[in-house]
């Protein structure tokens, strides 16, 4: 029997760990139940940190972890899923096409930044979505030091006032001063179509965010969007022109395109609708998890967000349940009642909230320490030691806060 997992992000990593854990608990050998993880590289990209400097350092190797738990790593980019033949088609690093049959499949393909067809966005916009995007932005920022301080060189426009946009914008003043000199006076502007920055943060935490923006000198343009970009700046939907040599697009994400090949229902973000065990209804043998799935967290109408916090726990349940079906043991319905948000606010600290209503618990430097611990400890892979790695993936305890 073979369980195939597509993706080495947070959901894919925990799916592999959890499946291996259940296999170990029930005494099945790797020959009896093969667990294979397909991904271009055996590396976890620490995506929640890509707004930070030195993004090339924000990865963690998975090779030793996967070896320790007897998970087969298959290097390649998954391109097709044939749910009738139960096979994944992938392209190897040298360009060859191969097929990998499966008995159960976990789709953990993650998400991608949504880039609308705005004039100039593809040519002139940057992002912190994927590792290569963040590296390209970092190189561009360092290159600003070689340009004359005119025509918006020191101005950064961030399109999108959600979590990613806020973290990118609030980090930017310090990043630019480190590059351009401590006496530099960078100008950072967030553009948000909604009537307020941080539209999803709620009434309790939004004032904390607004105070941080004021403290950092970050400007806001609300009720307007980016209409077009060119090499020297942006034009907003209300006609305002902003000269800026750096424009960062941070306005929305969608499930990765491969999910479209699974013949199931999807939401407006392209996520596959799944049942409480994270199966894709009507598609035999297929589970979806992380940013690829729209899953109910509880019975109160809350659904998992496209975040690493939900992806890790969802991954653990998906891997456990896919393996459980093959081992003939009971599955465990996914649930995630606890939910916290820790939003980085650059030199202004951070804000830590709890619950779906995002009730503020910690702010400032104390919240910043919590954010640092989350970013540097909690979200990294477990030690490549078999017992510790398997123990980390108990689905009932992953990311319980």
UniProtKB/TrEMBL annotation:
Domain of life: Bacteria
Keyword Membrane among record annotations: no
InterPro entries: FAD/NAD-bd_sf (IPR036188), FAD/NAD-binding_dom (IPR023753), NDH-2 (IPR045024)
UniProtKB keywords: FAD, Flavoprotein, NAD, Oxidoreductase
Keyword Nucleus listed: no
Pfam families hit by this protein: Pyr_redox_2
Gene Ontology terms for molecular function: NADH dehydrogenase activity
Domain FAD/NAD(P)-binding span(s) in chain numbering: 2-315
Family designation: Belongs to the NADH dehydrogenase family.
UniProt-recorded name of the protein: Pyridine nucleotide-disulfide oxidoreductase
Organism in which the protein naturally occurs: Bradyrhizobium neotropicale
């Amino acid at each position: 029997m073979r369980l195939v997992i597509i993706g080495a992000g947070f959901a894919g990593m925990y799916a592999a760990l959890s499946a291996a854990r259940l296999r170990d608990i029930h005494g099945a050998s790797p020959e009896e139940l093969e667990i294979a993880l397909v991904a271009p590289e055996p590396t976890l990209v620490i995506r929640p940190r890509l707004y930070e400097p030195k993004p090339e350092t924000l990865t963690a190797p998975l090779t030793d972890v996967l070896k320790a738990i007897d998970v087969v790593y298959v290097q390649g980019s998954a391109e097709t899923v044939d749910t009738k033949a139960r096979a994944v088609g992938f392209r190897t690093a040298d360009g060859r096409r191969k097929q990998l049959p499966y008995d159960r499949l976990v789709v953990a393909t993650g998400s991608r930044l949504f880039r609308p067809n705005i004039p100039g966005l593809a040519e002139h916009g940057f992002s912190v979505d994927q590792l290569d995007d963040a590296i390209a932005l970092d190189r561009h920022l360092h290159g600003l030091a070689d340009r004359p301080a005119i025509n918006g060189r020191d101005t950064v426009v961030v399109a999108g006032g959600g979590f990613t946009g806020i973290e990118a914008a609030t980090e930017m003043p310090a990043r630019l001063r480190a590059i351009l000199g401590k006496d530099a006076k960078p100008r950072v502007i967030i553009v948000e179509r909604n009537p307020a920055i941080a539209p999803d943060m709620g009434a309790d935490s939004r004032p904390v965010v607004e105070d941080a923006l004021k403290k950092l000198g970050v400007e806001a343009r609300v009720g307007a969007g980016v209409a077009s970009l060119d090499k020297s700046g942006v034009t907003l939907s209300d006609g305002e022109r902003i000269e800026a040599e750096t424009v960062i697009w941070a306005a929305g994400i969608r499930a990765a395109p491969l999910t479209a090949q699974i013949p199931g229902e999807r939401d407006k973000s392209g996520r596959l609708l799944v049942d409480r065990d994270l199966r894709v209804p009507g598609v035999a043998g297929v589970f979806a998890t992380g940013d690829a799935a729209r899953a109910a967290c509880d019975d109160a109408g809350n659904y998992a967000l496209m975040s690493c916090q939900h992806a890790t726990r969802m991954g653990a349940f998906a891997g456990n349940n896919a393996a459980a079906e093959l081992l003939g043991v009971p599955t465990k319905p996914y649930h995630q009642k606890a939910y916290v948000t820790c939003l980085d606010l650059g030199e202004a600290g951070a804000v830590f909230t709890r619950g779906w209503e995002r009730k503020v618990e910690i702010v400032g430097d104390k919240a910043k320490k919590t954010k640092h611990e989350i970013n540097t400890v909690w979200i990294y892979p477990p030690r490549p030691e078999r017992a510790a790695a398997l123990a980390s993936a108990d689905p009932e305890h992953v990311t319980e806060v």
